[in-house]
Model the fold of this input.
Amino acid sequence: MDTQITQPDSLLRWMASLADATRLRLLRLVQRHELGVSDLCEVLQLPQSTVSRHLKLLGDEGWTVSRRRGTTNLYRMVLDELEPAQRQMWLLAREQTEGWAALDQDKLRVAERLRQRSDEAKSFFDSAAEQWGQMREAMYGPTFGVQALLALLPSGWTVADLGCGTGALAFELSRHVGRVIGVDNAPAMLDAARRRTGDKKNIELRQGDLESLPIEDDECDAAMMVLVLTYLVEPASALREMARVIRPGGKAVIVDVMRHDREGFRREMGQQNMGYEPAEVCLLLEEAGLTSCCCTPIAPHADAKGPALLLCTGEKAD
Done:
């Protein structure tokens, strides 16, 4: 009896919550990005009181979730957490709003907002390059990279190390595979990587953004991102690029931070977010076009001071 009563009530509430242009624009934004109120006010060009009012309604109806980062609440939509009927309703609303001019304007403004965040992350890496290896080992222990290396075998492959940093993993990986392509957008990191890998003939280092990789389509047998996603403002774009450069049948490997609540750690490490749930990474990989996605926790090293990590893999369909 209760189900018969509540289903129509829920349906009507969901329909009412979508029957507003501002709320539709908000949901289109937070489905793709985790954004704060100030971000959304700037993108939508609306006052904080208006944006906050709409966000409260969307949260009350289960369209969005939020988390605290310092003094800021960050909002996002997680499709997997919507009710099945609610998700179908949203997918229809999303389809019917394609080509809406207001959304094109929002995309331009959010891209600029995210570019500013990327500049902040790049400044962090430029300043941290010399101590980066020690910082990562102190936080995560000395063996986390081995998990990614083992997942990438067999040997003989061309492997992309995306966000290669100072080249530590590329150096180790070069002993087991035929060729390594390391990509990073921080000049200081690449300088450190060149010093580390200078005598390795099968390592090629390239400067470039992970959202627009300097690698040809299907050039690699596999690709990995180790402790990279949490620094990206647009992880979905980077994962689509990752999938693009892998040949059909090739493999993608992600190692990154599990979702946590340590804001001080996030600030110290210069990260954009507080990590990922396993299902969240699998969804990102699937949306990037990868299949057979699997995501499991990595047992923490005894001396590691940072949060636990995840190992996630996916394959590019033949």
